[in-house]
Design goal:
With about 300 residues, this protein is an alpha/beta fold. Helix content is about 25%, strand content about 25%. The chain has two domains: about 220 residues, P-loop containing nucleotide triphosphate hydrolases (Rossmann fold, 3-Layer(aba) Sandwich); about 60 residues, no CATH class. It contains eleven helices and eleven strands. The two termini are about 75 Å apart. One of its GO terms (biological process) is tRNA wobble uridine modification.
């Protein structure tokens, strides 16, 4: 599934990569960047917490020729006053609309892609609603800052261990594909991930996959991840009824005493002597039920038994 999403066989407008401090998502983002360069005319990479030099050192010139880097990592909060861009206050839709190199580099009818690495700084310094709205406006035809071109895909990465589940669920609602990297304790060469993909038909697919990245950042040895084996130990479970101060079951004597108990509405003393003996021995017999005279009753003797109706 992850391979089909990266190479475009599965259409996905917004791809969200969730990583942690144990499983970094930057190698997978580099692999995704190479895949985007094969499918789109231009890629605009917005670097919020990592320098563009990190990608330039490992990517080939063929891929870099399709990339336009926007560096917001050197002074994200605008403390050095080297520019007017700040992660805390800049509207990046307006920034992309007014950027001179962006307007000159995009030609009419081109298909471009946008990558954000990562949106954690946006979520921390701006509201989550702004971040979700930014992702939606990038792919929307009417609100996209790229006039005259089509934004085919937006890929963003978020450090999931720095945010709560409620915020991550908001991002997952906006995204059409969510790739969650998982810790692989059994192997150091393979990466595990959980993929949640929404197809355009409305069908939702979920799968756990395992893959390996080559030194040139290409997917290798992709397979379905096997669930971890859970060892079940046959331990003796303590009996919760062992130390009770009371009995859960009645003895034969207690059962006999219960059968001889006279209920308040049954007067066993009015029965014949043989019926009394049967009741005391616990046998099924007929008892007299005394009714109050505050109502008029109609008795219907049927095959199923005695029915009493009030009038």
């Amino acid at each position: 599934m992850i391979e089909n999403i990266l190479n475009g066989k599965e259409q996905s407008k917004i791809v969200l990569i969730q990583d942690t401090i144990e499983e970094s998502g930057y190698p997978l983002a580099t692999c995704c960047l190479k895949s985007l360069s094969n499918r789109f005319d231009q890629i605009h990479l917005l670097c919020f917490d990592i320098s563009p030099q990190t990608f330039k050192k490992v990517l080939p010139e063929e891929t870099l020729s399709h990339c336009t880097f926007h560096d917001f990592s050197s002074d994200p909060l605008g403390w050095l006053e080297n520019g007017h861009v700040s992660v805390k206050s800049t509207d990046f839709i307006h920034y992309l609309q007014k950027h001179p190199t962006l307007r000159n580099s995009c030609s009419q009818g081109q298909q471009i892609a946008v990558m954000l690495c990562s949106i954690t700084n946006l979520l921390i310094h701006q509201s989550p609603s702004y971040t979700c709205r930014l992702l939606h406006r990038l792919v929307d035809t009417y609100t996209s800052p790229f006039s005259g071109v089509t934004v085919g895909q937006v890929v963003c990465m978020v450090h999931s261990d720095l945010h709560g589940e409620h915020l991550l669920s908001q991002l997952a609602y906006v995204a059409t594909s969510v790739i969650t990297l998982q810790n692989n304790s059994t192997s150091n060469t393979f990466m595990n991930c959980h993929v949640l993909h929404h197809r355009t038909t409305g069908k939702i697919l979920q799968i756990n996959e395992q893959f390996r990245l080559s030194p040139t950042y290409e997917l290798k040895d992709l397979m379905v991840a096997k669930p971890a084996a859970v060892s079940v130990t046959d331990e003796h479970q303590p009996d919760p009824t062992a130390n009770l101060t009371f009995n859960l079951n009645l003895t034969d004597k207690e059962k006999a005493d219960r059968s001889r108990q006279v209920l308040p509405h049954i007067k066993i003393q009015n029965l014949p002597q043989e019926s009394k003996t049967s009741c005391e021995e616990g046998e099924d017999t007929i008892a007299l039920v005394y009714l109050r005279k505050t109502r008029n009753y109609t008795f219907c003797d049927t095959e199923d038994g005695l029915r009493i109706r009030t009038q």
